[in-house]
Amino acid sequence: MQSRTTIDNGTIHTLCRQCAHHCGIYAHIQDGRITKISGNKTHPENLGMVCSKGREAPDWVYHPERLTGCRKRTPSGDFKTIEYERALDEISEKIVNIRDHFGARAMSAWTGEAIGFLQQEAYAQRFINAFGSPNFFTADSVCFASRLMAYVTCQGYWSYPPDFENAQMIILWGANPAYSHPPFMQAINRSRRKGGKLVVVDRKARMGRNPQTGEPIHIPAKKALKFRIAKAAKDAVMG
Ligand code: SF4
Description:
Blueprint: E1 10-15, E2 24-30, E3 33-39, H1 52-55, H2 58-62, E4 70-73, E5 79-82, H3 84-102, E6 109-111, H4 117-131, E7 136-138, H5 144-155, E8 169-173, H6 177-180, H7 182-193, E9 197-201, E10 207-209, E11 216-218, H8 222-238
Parallel strand pairs: 6-7, 8-9
Antiparallel strand pairs: 1-2, 2-3, 4-5, 10-11
Iron/sulfur cluster (SF4) binds at residues 16, 18-19, 21-23, 46, 50-51, 53-54, 182-183.
């Protein structure tokens, strides 16, 4: 399949759609092909930064091994290419069969976070609801939902993202925004430049490390740290 851009040469101001940050980017185009992605310094979300996923976005269009059709698993575990029409017929026959024998609630839909994921989630949710099932799950079910519940339970409302830039202390616990949420890391670094403290508790490393003091936080101490934080929060609220 040949993909051509809407202009032959030049630069298109656009947004990266690979995660919820929607960073401002420029797509540089030469002879109808995207040759490079760079960051838009005037965009308030990313201020010119583009993460590795954004930089490699042309692979979505040009990578020789990307999927461009339907694949069906064979009994031997391999995959073979089948036509879209046939795939749709086979899938619809199976899900109608499930509904007829076990009821619509026996079906659920799950979506991951692919490109343009918010729209995909909406389509998948609409589909499964129209099918007659309330069972809809996404990557959010194991990530966003627990975060939302924690915010609502602790402070009574949802306020995300936190005001990283003006925080006096930030604890990164099992999170790596330098890779997963680069615009958040930019805001965290702005806080540090203003004197904010950053504590990192890193599950993968043998120990976490406070990057400002270099002080290690050993894994056996993490439970104690959790209890101390919980107690400090309780004392702050209840006195
Ligand atoms: S953080 Fe990276 S993947 Fe997400 S929108 Fe920005 S450049 Fe794209």
